[in-house]
Design brief:
This protein is of the alpha+beta class. It has three helices and two strands, in the order αβαβα. The protein has a two-stranded parallel sheet with strand order 1-2. The N and C termini lie far apart (42 Å).
Length: 72
């Protein structure tokens, strides 16, 4: 079962739910989220004795370098 909550920055819901589920996957906007915000979210999960399974980078762009693109 997948449980979706509001972002950590919008309230305590996510931190409280992290203690009640088997594991937490943190979704991070790769281009916009600052590392301090991510660090705070990880600390909140740990303080509520949650289990952080991993992080998903959302909106990540992989550009093809020009020297590779010319060979395609």
């Amino acid at each position: 079962i997948l449980v979706d909550t509001r972002p950590f920055s919008e309230g305590p819901d996510a931190a409280l739910v992290s203690a009640a589920v088997d594991g937490t996957v943190l979704i991070v906007d790769a281009g916009a989220t600052r590392w301090q915000v991510i660090n705070s979210a990880v600390e909140k999960i740990a303080s509520h004795r949650g289990n952080l399974l991993g992080v998903v980078l959302n909106k990540r762009r992989h550009y093809i370098p020009s020297f590779i693109y010319r060979r395609l």
